[in-house]
Amino acid sequence: MDETPGRDAVELRVHGISGVTAERILDHPIVTRVAGNTHAGFFRPRPGSGTAGGATDGVTVEAYRWGSLTAGAAVRTASMLLLLPFMLSNLAIWLRPPGHDRWGLLGVLCRLIAGTLTATFMLAAVGVTLDLVGWQCVPYPGCRASRPYLAWLHNLPAGPRLALLSIVPLLALRVVWAIGTRSARTFEGFGPSSAQRLPGEPAGSLTDPGFWQDEQTTGWLRQLHVVLGIGTLNVALLAGISPGGVGAPGHAALFGVAVGLLVVGAALLALPVPASPAGARRFLRPLWVATVVVTVCSLGSAALADAKPTGSGKLPGYEGAAAGVVATQGILLLVLTVVTYTRQRAARDDERPFLRGLGTPVVAAVAVSVGAAFTATLVYRVADALDHGDIPDPIRPNPPIVGPLDPPVAYWWAALAGLAALLIGAAVTSVTLLLSRRRRRRQAAGIIERDYPDVPAEDAHRLRLVRETIARSRITEELGPLLLAFLLIASLGLATVAFDVIGVGPTQLADRLGGDGGAAVALAYVTDAGVWVISLLVLCLMILGFRAYRSAQTRRVVAVLWDLGTFWPRMIHPFAPPCYAARAVPELAKRVTGLTARGPVVISGHSHGSVLAAATILQLPPSVLARVSLLTYGSPLQRTYSRLYPAYLGPQTLRDLGGRIGWRWRNLWRDTDPIGGPIFPSGPHGTPPGVDVDVRLRDPRSLTIDRADTVPPPIEGHWPYHTQAAYQAAIRELTDRSR
């Protein structure tokens, strides 16, 4: 039901991250839902129970609660941790520099990198099932001893055994596919909006009516990634078996067709998404038929092959496949870095992006690194369990009766790189914070002198506390060197690609260079430490996922990361967690459109809610904008989003946003807030003459204890804002200007 009075003005509050309750948003203990559903809904105080906290006279307060879209279901939140590499790869493209992406080259590179992540995922499943279990463990008595669940596989020839174990990677791919398709049920869209781009705005901006409609793109990419995953399995299976069942020529031809399907799938990733479902089916239907036929033939070829393993080494072809994927990722990251840096040099001075425009390759490198960490952890932990606790390598092999149980060389380099990244990252973080401490304290001291010029001696300790709080709130601006250091680490990791391809691991390289073997043994222990470090990090994520299943509080903590990482549509990797803004923004736009028919609406966005509010206004039709105003507070729009996503929320987009609503916009911020800040800097690229959007609030309001109180005013930082008089004054002003 909707209790909106006849011509009433509405303050529509949109909360930030962490999935707060409607009661907290409204600052009222008794609320009722007036629109929406359990996933995302609009709430008001129950009639007759009083007004919302911080309400302005004559203005009805309504809250939009969207937190359950990311923090609601326990299984959904826990499963999202498994999709972290896919989420990061999808996030990378949205950090691209402003300007036209000529030929869509950045998007093509990011989609190809995403395709290698799917191949990495399948190679991990292949490495555990076909390589470690089927090839390196079952044939050896010492490995299958006391393991009846593996002993029966020894009675099968190698080919049928590998064909049977291939079911496990196929099931893993099906599970990931099922997680990705759930968005159609939970994040139900509302269709294209009636938004209109202003003259000069590029296609693909936040004002495009279909910007948040990603079903067509996701469906297309999902089909291609499933083909890539199945194709990776087919190639690994055909490379691992002998051609005894179908003859050498037939086996070679089948292997060539399987490789060809992989190449076709990768080539389709580089093409634009077909505009219609019919156009997509024209490509996908023959590709799917060919994939099914090749998969059946591959399994049949393996089932008919009866040759035994040689008794040494890894699954034939698996080492080369893992090295090939790593080499491909390294080349794509290198090209992506060059193209991105070239693009950002053309940006205007006021749109210089964060990290010198290298946000896209940095996040893509993080996605690749996390994927490698997940893969290496899975393979190493299974190998560790199968050989009863040892960690073999070429310098310290297992006894012959146990089997080799040796993971690919690429995973050894990944373990060593993981340890180096952790140490270098910790060192860069520490040095950056130490070097910036004096500057941050000097800036905080200037703010203190301006806000509290005459402070009694007894309040000196309170003054120091406020100064330290302001200094700590500026740490957000100091994370750039850490991320650039990570990109440097990833770039140095490209040097290992050549060793991956020729199959030389860290210990083998040290053995050849060291001579006496001591350096190889020492490096082997260092690599072992790297294995355990990345394993512990991944296990911590798994524990966090388990805690998310058991604890609502932990689910909210996990949801904080997902609120930031799943804001953008899935245009790169279809297995990434679904985009909640694909529902939240159209739903807000529809609700605001309906409310403006009864009176003016002030969209009040806190923290990340201000980003949703800005995206909503950019999707509103011109007929609605005349009765809409915007109030933001604790907003990261300029401090974070404008710098990280300059192509979509850069300074020019924010100025266009203000112009759309006639500059009926107020932004409240505090120096003690570590997240929010001013929106428009002073200078020629700020607001028009005579327009003031940013309103700075002194925090705390005073250092001394009021005579009617027992403690000094608190340092409020990021929350709350609605309890201050400046908030009600802004609501009143914006409402009056919208009538």
Characterization of this structure:
By secondary structure, the chain is α/β, with parallel strands linked by helices. Helix content is 57%, strand content 6%. The protein has 29 helices and 8 strands. It has helices at residues 22-26, 68-71, 74-82, 84-92, 105-135, 141-144, 148-151, 158-165, 167-180, 183-186, 215-240, 248-269, 277-304, 318-344, 359-386, 409-451, 460-473, 480-493, 497-502, 506-514, 518-550, 552-565, 581-596, 608-617, 622-625, 637-644, 646-649, 651-660, 725-738; strands at 9-14, 31-36, 41-45, 59-65, 601-606, 628-633, 665-670, 694-697. Strands 2-3-4-1-5-6-7-8 form an 8-stranded mixed beta sheet, sandwiched between helices. β2 (31-36) and β3 form a beta hairpin. α3 (74-82) packs antiparallel against α21, α3 crosses α22 and α23 (581-596) crosses α24 (608-617). It is globular, with a radius of gyration of 29 Å.
